[in-house]
Amino acid sequence: MKDYAGADPGFDPDVYRTLLESTLAIPWRIDWATMTFAYIGPQIEPLLGWPRGSWKTIDDWASRIHEEDRQRVVDFCVSQSMAGVDHEADYRALTRDNGYVWIRDVVHVVRDETGKVESLVGFMFDITERKKTEQDLLDMQKRLETLSFEDGLTGASNRRMFDNRLETEWKSACRKGTPLSAILIDLDHFKQFNDRYGHIAGDECLIRVAGALKQAGRRPRDVVARFGGEEFVILLPETDAASALHLAECCRDAIDDLQIPHEGSQCSTLVTASIGVGTTQPAVRTGARDFLAAVDRLLYAAKQQGRNRIVAATV
């Protein structure tokens, strides 16, 4: 291959070749009329494993792009090249041993004196480490976002997450005309539990209860959150009164099944819960906060009636 990526004819080709082949970037040139490689740097073989001589046509390049990236990258590069626009593309290039390397292809379109596309010249850069760093940062950001909406003790959603979802689901229910339910759960005589068994045991109790509640409310859109202290709340989008009451009963049974001793309780020898269950048909003229306050009153009624029970109503 005597033509080195558009070298100046007055420049010593041996010197130019030495420069091209000493860089970590991989130079290449494609003849536009024949869609064949006029040149590709020897760096391609140690990077991807494909013999330098096997890069003959544009089809060889396309077939060695990861199938998830191939159509997007080929369509983009061809359209930009036809339009005579310089461009670059990131993609996963397949290696000969069935792995892949992240490549950034930087492309310059060479035109003849009439403006017609004559060739494409460019450089491939190995950006695998950069992509790994970007993914690590993205994963860290996602984790931080998760932590900002997660209760640090129990792993349930926190109050911030619940408040955000309550507003979102309220608006959604208003648009769709669907019911919205919520369950408020308060562990009975929990101060006495901490006084008798200590705060470490109290924390462990909350963790176990949160786990049981998350198992009970497992639909993708349900939100199980720690509401504060020993209170939990479950938000139930598109859930009618009968279904909400059934889930509340499952939650109560799940807490009973934990069999956590509570000798300081005035209503049982085990940890129990008082539960308020409310269902409403959201409307623009009313507010999500008013709905939550109504459910809280149902929880208060359960406590007033002796605790360790469920009070449910349409509000």
UniProtKB/TrEMBL annotation:
<dbReference type="GO" id="GO:0005886">
    <property type="term" value="C:plasma membrane"/>
</dbReference>
<dbReference type="InterPro" id="IPR050469">
    <property type="entry name" value="Diguanylate_Cyclase"/>
</dbReference>
<feature type="domain" description="GGDEF">
    <location>
        <begin position="178"/>
        <end position="315"/>
    </location>
</feature>
<dbReference type="InterPro" id="IPR013655">
    <property type="entry name" value="PAS_fold_3"/>
</dbReference>
<protein>
    <recommendedName>
        <fullName>diguanylate cyclase</fullName>
        <ecNumber>2.7.7.65</ecNumber>
    </recommendedName>
</protein>
<dbReference type="InterPro" id="IPR043128">
    <property type="entry name" value="Rev_trsase/Diguanyl_cyclase"/>
</dbReference>
<feature type="domain" description="PAC">
    <location>
        <begin position="87"/>
        <end position="139"/>
    </location>
</feature>
<dbReference type="InterPro" id="IPR029787">
    <property type="entry name" value="Nucleotide_cyclase"/>
</dbReference>
<dbReference type="GO" id="GO:0052621">
    <property type="term" value="F:diguanylate cyclase activity"/>
</dbReference>
<dbReference type="Pfam" id="PF00990">
    <property type="entry name" value="GGDEF"/>
</dbReference>
<dbReference type="InterPro" id="IPR035965">
    <property type="entry name" value="PAS-like_dom_sf"/>
</dbReference>
<dbReference type="InterPro" id="IPR000014">
    <property type="entry name" value="PAS"/>
</dbReference>
<dbReference type="GO" id="GO:0043709">
    <property type="term" value="P:cell adhesion involved in single-species biofilm formation"/>
</dbReference>
<dbReference type="InterPro" id="IPR000160">
    <property type="entry name" value="GGDEF_dom"/>
</dbReference>
<dbReference type="Pfam" id="PF08447">
    <property type="entry name" value="PAS_3"/>
</dbReference>
<dbReference type="InterPro" id="IPR001610">
    <property type="entry name" value="PAC"/>
</dbReference>
<dbReference type="GO" id="GO:1902201">
    <property type="term" value="P:negative regulation of bacterial-type flagellum-dependent cell motility"/>
</dbReference>
<dbReference type="InterPro" id="IPR000700">
    <property type="entry name" value="PAS-assoc_C"/>
</dbReference>
